[in-house]
Specification:
alpha+beta; binds zinc ion; rod-shaped; 51% helix; 335 residues; 2 domains; four-stranded antiparallel sheet; Muramoyl-pentapeptide Carboxypeptidase, domain 2
Length: 335
């Protein structure tokens, strides 16, 4: 090969190499452009996505605010009342205009309403919206709006045939009715004892046998009894079945516990004497003083064996009017 041909060949190779480099650079530029384009696309997509999300969140928040605002504007007396009733233990401060609306009006036509107790009626009615006006009035008259054992009203005295002794009316130490006599070995006031004697005789004619096992008790005696119970049981429990000294109806000599043909107070309800006494004792002036349905009034659980002499006028009226507790009768007609 001559020199000329060699140079020609070299120059051709150089030319080939140069073309390849140019081609390579063009491809490199094209790749870079493509990558940049892709990155731009991705960035734009992300930006759009964030913008859309932000718009949605903003809309939701705005909508929520509008709804809340609207519902708070119509927060309503009715809804608020429902709420307070459902959560009576929670103290819910009522709006001022609502307090105005809810002024308590207790029916003026009720005969045993006592004008000096207006405020107590109103506040008791507010606490017990489920009671009728009639119930509000007699319950407040019976002091049921006051705490038991703290109100301590002195009892009316020996001359009152309708004396009431309960967790509000307390007899003083040394209280001793004047005309106590022994019946079945228990002390009762004369009129009470005579009524009992007649009831016992009529029961006997039916083949039924009742006898008094506890009549008059002094305050001192009751103190011993109550404290004995207290040594074995909680005060809350004892208060449901035993009177504190001074608060027992047995102090009056006009209350008695009776046995039927089977001994034991708790057995009395299961004796044939019980239904007869329950249905007939009013004819002799007696009432069964503590019933299941009067526990929230008297504070004592049911005692079918504990009778109180109130005289036939009151016992008959209570039966006719279906008045279950002496507290209710007393609050309505004897104050
Ligand atoms: Zn008793």
């Amino acid at each position: 090969m001559n020199q000329l041909q060699e140079r020609e060949l070299k120059s051709q190779r150089m030319e080939e190499l140069r073309r390849r480099r140019i081609l390579e650079r063009k491809r490199e530029i094209a790749r870079k452009k493509k990558r940049k384009k892709l990155i731009r696309k991705v960035l734009i997509s992300m930006l759009l996505f964030f913008a859309a999300t932000a718009t949605i969140v903003l809309c939701v928040l705005l909508f929520d605010t509008i709804i809340k605002d609207a519902s708070s504007r119509k927060t309503p007396v009715a809804t608020q009342v429902e709420y307070t009733q459902q959560n009576s233990e929670d103290v819910v401060e009522e709006p001022i205009e609502k307090k105005e609306e809810q002024k308590i009006i207790v029916d003026d036509s009720i005969e045993y309403k006592d004008e000096t107790k207006e405020e107590r009626y109103a506040s008791y009615k507010k606490q017990n919206p489920h009671f009728s006006d009639e119930e509000i009035i007699w319950r407040v008259n019976a002091n049921l709006d006051k705490p038991k054992y703290e109100y301590d009203i002195p009892v009316s005295g020996y001359d009152d045939p309708y004396i009431i002794v309960n967790k509000y009316y307390k007899v003083p130490d040394g209280y001793h009715p004047p005309d106590l006599k022994s019946f079945d070995g228990q002390l009762l006031r004369e009129e009470t004892g005579n009524a009992y004697k007649k009831m016992r005789e009529d029961a006997l004619k039916q083949g039924l046998n009742i006898r008094v096992v506890s009549g008059y008790r002094s305050v001192e005696y009751q103190r011993g009894l109550y404290n004995r119970y207290l040594s074995n049981d909680s005060r809350e429990n004892v208060d449901r079945y035993s009177a504190r000294p001074g608060y027992s109806e047995h102090h009056t000599g006009m209350a008695m516990d009776i046995f039927g043909s089977q001994d034991g107070l708790r057995n009395f309800e299961n004796t044939p004497e019980y239904p007869w006494v329950r249905d007939n004792c009013y004819k002799y002036g007696f009432i069964i003083r503590y019933l299941v349905e009067t526990e929230d009034i008297t504070g004592y659980e049911s005692e079918p064996w504990h009778l109180r002499y109130v005289g036939t006028k009151v016992s008959t009226e209570m039966k006719e009017k279906n008045i279950k507790s002496f507290e209710e009768y007393h609050a309505k007609y004897l104050q």
